[in-house]
Design brief:
The protein is an alpha+beta fold. The protein contains 5 helices and 6 strands; from the N terminus they run H-E-E-E-E-H-H-E-E-H-H.
Length: 165
């Protein structure tokens, strides 16, 4: 049943309620028309989510630590998750230090610490590969791999020394 009062209020400009972007239960976008100009109203773009907005928190060695998924690492590096998996398979980046068992048969979930992600982002920025491929710089012509491996070793050594203390 239609809500005529709300529709008339929207047409009159009295109510500033946001209309839904999609039809309920559908992936089809609702196209709405501004009644004053009779032109299509462009929906507002979705707010961009930061890569570190939803960390997973696990207890490691008696302390709580933030972990990030491969998707969050990919977002931080401005890449797709499939690219990060390929880099791992080609040994461009080392295998993650932490993983958890997946809930499905698809396998384990790769987890990276905040220090690992921020270090890889910093190295990618310094090496000039934070922008998308096709910009003229290829990852194989940089020292990205050596620096990331050194970063992971340094972080593992500092974690060992902090556990021993």
């Amino acid at each position: 049943m239609r809500d005529w009062e709300r529709e008339f209020a929207v047409i009159a400009g009295g109510e500033a309620q946001k209309a839904p972007a999609y039809y309920p239960g559908s992936s089809r976008r609702i196209r709405s028309v501004d009644p004053r100009t009779m032109r299509l109203v462009q929906p507002e773009p979705a707010p961009e989510v930061q890569w570190d907005s939803r960390p997973r928190v696990y207890r490691v060695g008696g302390t709580l630590q933030e972990f990030f998924s491969i998707g969050q690492l990919a977002q931080a590096l401005n890449r797709q998750p499939v690219t990060i998996r390929k880099w791992e398979r080609l040994s461009i980046i080392p295998a993650p230090t932490f993983s958890i068992r997946g809930k499905t048969e698809r396998g384990n979930r790769r987890l990276y610490t905040r220090a690992q992600v921020e270090g890889m982002v910093r190295i990618a920025q310094e090496e000039g590969i934070l922008l998308h491929e096709g910009e003229g710089i290829h990852i194989s012509t940089t020292k990205f791999t050596e620096r990331v491996v050194a970063l992971f070793k340094e972080l593992a050594a500092s974690a060992e020394s902090s556990r021993a203390a």
